[in-house]
Amino acid sequence: MSKTIMVVDDSASLRQVVKLALTGAGYSVIEACDGRDALSKADGQRIHLVISDVNMPNMDGITFVRQLKTHPAYKFTPVIMLTTESGEDRKSAGQAAGAKAWVTKPFLPAQMLSAVSKLIS
Fold first, then answer.
1. Which of 23, 24, 37, 50 would be 32's cystine partner, CB 3.0–4.6 Å?
2. What is the pLDDT along the chain (121 residues), one digit of tens a residue?
3. Rg of the Cα trace of the chain?
4. How many domains would you assign to the chain?
5. Closest by Cα among 61, 65, 50, 70 to 112
């Protein structure tokens, strides 16, 4: 049974790169283009991990993670923020919202997969 990962990013090409790396490693992927889209797609289904951008239209990644974590089904779902943001204030806001890891773009797929496998055991 493969684990399901939700990838939330407003860049379709970035979602594609992440999806290829994840499906290549045997994961199932649900794609969403922003936080609002991600919340509607999550909708109580089993998601083992979320990878989210920070800067997105409609609902940014930190607001999305904060809202996702209010749902009992996702309270303990690990979240990796994948972003160009590397400022400490953004990182602490991400951690406060519930993010477990912070991967800076541009990233190496291997680096991201290693973070994923650490968080999904």
1. 37
2. 789 999 999 999 999 999 999 999 999 999 999 999 999 999 889 999 999 999 999 999 999 999 999 999 999 999 999 988 888 999 999 999 999 999 988 888 898 999 999 999 7
3. 13
4. 1
5. 50
Token pair belonging to 84: 């160009």
Give first-to-last CA distance, the chain, whole Å. Answer: 13
Domain span at 96: 4-119
Residue 111: CA count within 13 A, CB half-sphere: 9
- Among residues 57, 106, 60, 103, the alpha carbon closest in space to that of 79 is found at 103
CA-based nearest residue to 48, from 25, 7, 77, 28:
77
pLDDT for position 93: 93
- Is the pTM higher than 0.85? The answer reads yes
Alpha carbons within 13 A on the beta-carbon side of 27 = 25
